[in-house]
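Handoff note, outgoing to incoming analyst
You'll be picking up this chain. Sequence as last confirmed:
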Amino acid sequence: MNNIDIEKLPIIDVSLLRKDEDGKKQIAKEINKACKEHGFFYIKNHGVQQELIDQLQSVMKKFFSLPLETKMKWKMGLTNREWLGFFKVGQEITYGQVDWKEGCYYSTEMEGDINPIHNVPLYPSSEEEEQYQIQGFKNAILSYIEKLTELSHQLIEAISLSLNLPQDYFFKNYTYDPFVLMGLLHYPSFHHNQEEEDGGTKSPNPDESKKPVEQFGTGQHTDWGLLTILYQDDVGGLQVKSKDSDEYIDAPPIPGTFVCNIGDMFDKMTGGYYLSNLHRVKYNRTGRDRFSIPFFLDPCLYSIPKLIPNYDDLSEFADKPERWDKQNIHEFDGTYGQYFIKKIGRVFPDYVYKKSGELV
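Most recent structure output, in case you need it:
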């Protein structure tokens, strides 16, 4: 397996986005090149304080160290947004294969989240935070969502400029009321499936019969929406498909950076000019647990993604190769919410959205 070539997955200094119009144009050029070649890039000088990231990492590690029965108090399926909450190892499925991780998906709170049948809030209460010694859990998550939402809007403005569109094009049409989702992901080390070396707790051990032939922390996939911003710890494991072959290259942690990638909706709206790229996470055998925090900013659930107005100017450079999953995202003509629900039902079959009609 090749190591990452920094020249191929660039590191973009996005501090220029906060300076002047010339700075934004320079970043737009760099993003254009990265999105056409890989769909991935690192960003540095992003303005998110390391202190906030460290606080979130600290409290998420405390949460994942809790007994499984405690974490399951906030499992998926208990609120009216059934895709939010905790899932255990073996419950997330990527294209038919088990992902060897546990995690939580969260968003900002909404009126109507609580399902009267279960009467469970999305987040632990302050009393529960105190009881389980995860003080600051909810506040750290909501603060991170706020900062990453701001950063995402800045990057999407630059992506608009990179496509020779007004910088507010995607905001006016799709991200005025964005669909925001963040994950707290824990990849236990399965190097021996016994006592962890640093902490004395056992890694979750799902049904052995569910193991895929080839194991991954997260199987190969593309992201569904617009933009993903990933923070990963120093264990590593992210891999990105090479632009020149079917091999995967490592995308290791680089201090002070996030990893960004574009999703299927940018692929669709640019007619293949920008391609959402395959990526995966290696099965963790390092002897150290891996933690990562993906953040997704996607179109409004009720918006209908359409080709950008200047597509004809870019069409000769666009490419629509057959996807590995045989799906044609360019033929999809529904709302982003419909696309999301179709996808999430396959990833979490235990918690597939049960009702037809509009999202709650």
